[in-house]
Write a structure and sequence with these properties.
single chain, mainly alpha, two-stranded antiparallel ribbon, 4 strands, about 65% helix, about 5% strand, coiled coil
């Protein structure tokens, strides 16, 4: 369709103007570029197209066609406006689920992390909106207190307290927070599994952190809660084992490097002793005399 909007059509970002002082000093602005926002009509059209791809991807996933599902989810991401963080988080979380089925742990981890990043960004924006709303409400209440109450107003019926009135904007934010919590749970448990399966000191440490977060969530299913508890029991030993293994490998590589440097001088690392400080955990090197 001619004139059809695309998430990648105009430049994806427009730069915010630099501050006057930064411009004068020739300094680059540290502010992130502001994403382009489409008109309501264009946004609805793009979101509708994205949801169509998403529905097809869901069907492919249910049929066990995980590679094809990933391709469709990627198409959904490509046309979804890049400022719709919640919708993008859902898509990335679904991509992570596909990679888990394919046992491609690294990609599953990456996709789930991207989903969680979008949710963090959205929660930060909601917090800013709530702060602004609270400040506006406080200012409004202060202005009301400063008004002169007319004689007729004193005889009027009692007004409904402001805190008892339902704020539609706050209701919408509360609903969005519940949605965020639901998707965060899915993305977090997918990333935790991906990290645990991929292994390695960093991944296992991250998996343990994820499972600790999941243990604190109140919307986790009984089956998943049991899994989380099992993982939290087994992971500490796996983390320590991976740490010792990778530390030994690191020292081995350093020893090889050191031997290459010391060889021209008729020395080797065997003539040096690494001593660990029990208090700090740090190491010092001592020369072993014959």
């Amino acid at each position: 369709m001619s004139g059809k909007a695309s998430a990648a059509d105009p430049a994806e970002y427009i730069k915010k103007p630099q501050s006057e002082s930064a411009a004068k000093n020739g300094e680059a602005s540290d502010e992130e570029p502001e994403p382009v926002r489409f008109s309501p009509e264009e946004e609805a059209e793009l979101l509708d197209e994205s949801n169509t791809h998403k529905t097809e991807a869901n069907t492919l996933f249910s049929s066990g066609k995980y590679d094809a599902a990933i391709s469709k989810y990627d198409e959904a991401v490509a046309v979804c406006p890049n400022y719709l963080d919640f919708e993008l988080a859902v898509l990335k979380s679904n991509v992570s689920a596909c990679y888990l089925k394919l046992q491609e742990w690294k990609d599953a981890n990456t996709a789930a992390t991207a989903a969680l990043g979008k949710l963090d960004k959205l929660e930060s924006r909601l917090a800013e909106e709530e702060k602004a709303a609270a400040e506006a409400k406080k200012q409004e209440e202060e202005e009301v207190e400063d008004e002169i109450i007319s004689a007729g107003a004193e005889k009027a019926g009692p007004a409904i307290p402001a805190d008892e009135k339902e704020d539609p904007a706050q209701v919408a934010r509360d609903k969005k927070r519940e949605d965020i919590k639901r998707i965060r749970y899915k993305a977090l448990i997918r990333r935790a599994r991906a990290r645990s399966e991929e292994g390695g000191w960093t991944n296992l440490t991250g998996a343990e952190e994820d499972y600790k977060l999941l243990a604190k969530m109140d919307n986790i299913t009984p089956v998943d809660r049991k899994l989380v508890q099992q993982q939290l029991k087994s992971l500490p030993a796996r983390v320590n084992e991976a740490k010792e293994k990778e530390t030994a490998e690191m020292w081995g590589k350093l020893k090889d490097l050191g031997n290459g440097i010391l060889k021209p001088f008729g020395l080797s690392t065997d003539q040096f002793q690494m001593v660990q400080d029990p208090k700090t955990g740090g190491y010092s090197m001592n020369f072993k005399s014959n």
